[in-house]
Design goal:
mainly alpha
Length: 285
């Protein structure tokens, strides 16, 4: 079967967003927990793979390796199935723009998914990253010491090295690309095509140093759990607030609203069209 055309992607995205709000709260929360954990797995493997690479020798290649391996997170989210707040920030509002759900449904879904995402990310950060010793501490040697230094570099850059305006703008760019990855994955009907659609936008946003609120739910708490100095929970909370706001703008304005205007604003609903064009044979089927 052929891949979906852009108009079909838009219809599928709106239907998917509406469906996400029609599940019980407990299923949404479990699904969101998994997504937070999956993104944290992507962050953890990215740290491990890119640790020990001195920028004076490798230049910007460590960020490329970080981005390439971090794609694991969204691959797990979309192929295995789970709810990631940054993706839902485009799909669920699009469902509301099509009149399938209310603004209240959007707010409830995004709030619940964010809670689940942070619990999942914190679980991996504390138990599977720090308590396992995969991320070492300041006194660690060998691999643990290298991963600690890499995590410290990433987390200090995000929590202390960016102004509020920079964090917000980086988050806008991040979720523009993340939602494009989600959007393009809907075009593919094969797993291989979905993975290919995911890879390049995700690799790009990480390589450019953009801010993803759920990824930061892993990196920054993991730094605190590992004992990275000068980073406190106040820094973490401010980063999450700015990154979340920027991610929301990137998703709603540059993806959901843009494609709603291009492909859905004046288009009949797919379900309504199918109903109106059913043949007598279809009625009997």
């Amino acid at each position: 079967m052929p891949d979906r055309e852009p108009q079909e992607i838009a219809q599928t995205a709106a239907q998917t967003g509406a469906k996400k709000t029609r599940r019980s709260w407990d299923k949404v929360l479990v699904s969101a927990f998994l997504a937070g954990a999956y993104i944290a797995f992507g962050g953890l493997v990215a740290i491990v793979v890119s640790s020990g690479l001195d920028p004076e020798t490798w230049g910007t290649l460590p960020t490329l390796f970080t981005g390439a391996t971090f794609t694991l997170g969204l691959v797990l989210v979309l192929i295995a199935g789970s709810d990631l707040a940054t993706g839902n920030m485009a799909l669920v509002p699009l469902g509301a723009m099509r009149g399938k759900i209310s603004v209240g449904d959007v707010a409830k879904n995004l709030s619940l998914v964010l809670v689940g995402n942070v619990i999942g990310a914190l679980f991996v950060a504390y138990f599977l990253a720090v308590q396992t010793g995969v991320i070492g501490d300041a006194d660690a040697t060998g691999t643990g010491g290298l991963t600690y230094e890499r995590l410290a570099s990433i987390s200090e850059g995000k929590a202390l090295g960016e102004s509020a305006w920079q964090t917000f703008l980086r988050a806008v760019g991040c979720n523009w690309l993340v939602c494009l990855a989600v959007w393009m994955s809907l075009a593919a009907k094969e797993v291989s095509g979905k993975i290919l659609a995911i890879f390049f936008p995700i690799m790009a946003f990480v390589a450019m140093g953009f801010d993803h609120v759920v990824a930061n739910m892993f990196f920054l708490p993991a730094a605190i759990f590992a004992g990275v100095p000068d980073i406190g929970w106040g820094d973490v909370g401010l980063n999450w607030l700015l990154a979340g706001a920027g991610n929301l703008v990137g998703a709603v304005i540059f993806v959901a609203t843009s494609y709603w205007y291009l492909f859905l604003k004046d288009a009949p609903d797919e379900a309504e069209t199918s109903e109106n064009t059913r043949t007598p044979d279809a009625e009997r089927a």
